[in-house]
Each structure stands twice: as structure tokens, then as C-alpha cells.
Amino acid sequence: MYGLDLSSNQLSGEIPVEVWDLKNIISLNFSSNCLIGSIPDSISNLKNLESLDLSNNKLHGNIPPQLADLNNLGYFNVSYNDLSGEIPFKAHLVTFEATSYIGNDQLCGLPTNKSCKISKDFEKQFKEEEEEEEEGDGLIDMVWFYWTSGGVFISTSLVLFASLFIDSRWSREWFYRVDLFVHRVQSFKGRFLCN
Asked: Transmembrane residues, as ranges (predicted)?
């Protein structure tokens, strides 16, 4: 088999993996269907491929850089899919025009005029926002830590003050020490002001 044209047949699902084993195939046309999935790296098995049309489907993911290994590829069209990432623009792939890629909003690089730097900056910003959200989860734990610490402090203080109000030897000793401390502070203050 040298050519396979299954265009406009309302095909759905992924492209069967057996297709990528047709080593002598020259032309593949799966355009205008409802195919999903990604273009597999095993496309590099089709060394004799001269024409590949996957346009007007629902394919997603990156365009595999292995396409550059297909030296005979003269026609290539993946327009109007959901492909994303940087277009592999090397070897003979530089000969394909922007029309081969239109309708894929997430594709960037040559031959389109869309910069991949913006996409990379967006991905970096998205990752930073995710990290901040994860750190934000840690802040919620810190808030609970502060509330718990405050509750423990208040409870301990109440128990301490309650025990001081009970007439016991320990509470009398405590008030004596506090009174002695206040007296020393006042005498130190009096000496300091007089000098």
C-alpha cells in the first residue's frame, strides 16, 4: 500500500497505531475527521512518506520533532487541530509555510509569528502562581498554629491566675516576691532620680 486517503469519513478516536508501521506508505490523508490524541513519535518509521495531511481534526499535544527525520516529506498539513508547543523548525521542515499550522492557537515559533517566549513566560507565571497557592495552604496551617498557641496561652494564664486567688502558701509567696520586686524597682527609681 502506497497511499491511504481516509479524509472526510467522520472517523473518531485515535489514529490506529498500526498505521505508523506501514513502512512503504507514501501518502497519508486523515483530514476532516474527528480524530483525537497526539501525533506519535513512531511517525519516524514512515521513511518513504511524502505527504501527510492531519488537518481539521482534534489532535492535541506537540508536533513530534521526529518529523525532521522524514526526508521525503514534501507536503505537511496539521492546520485546525488543538496542537500546542514549539513547532520543530529544522531540516526540511523549514520549507513548510505557516498555512500548514494555522488554527492551532497554542503553537508557537517559526514559521508562525507567535513567540514561544511569551508561552514560556506564561507557563513560568502559571507555575509560580501554583507554588504560591501551595504556600498559601501552608499559611492556613500557620493561622491555625497562631490561634492554637493563643488559646493555650490564654488557658494557661487563666489557670495560673485562678491558682493565685486561692489562699495558699504558694500564692502568698508569689505575692510577696512580686511586692519585693516592685519595692526594689521603686527604690532604684528613687535613687536614680535623686542623682
From this structure: 144-166
Q: pLDDT grade, residue 188 (50/70/90)?
A: confident
pLDDT tens, position by position, 83-97: 998 888 787 778 888
Determine the CATH number of domain 3-112. Answer: 3.80.10.10
Strand order of the β-sheet with 60-61 is: 60-61, 82-86, 106-108
- Quote the longest CA-to-CA distance of the chain: 113
Q: Which candidate, 39, 102, 107, places its Cα nearest to that of 73?
A: 39
Strand 12-14 relative to strand 27-29, pairing: unpaired
Q: Which residue blocks in 85-168 are alpha helix, DSSP H? A: 116-165
Tell me: cis bond preceding 16? Omega within 30 of 0 counts.
Answer: no
HSE (side-chain half, CA atoms, 13 Å) at 139: 6
Domain ranges of the chain: 3-112, 123-194
pTM score, two decimals?
Answer: 0.58
C-alpha cell at 160: 495560673
154-169 confidence digits (pLDDT tens): 999 888 777 777 767 7
**139-144 mean pLDDT:** 71
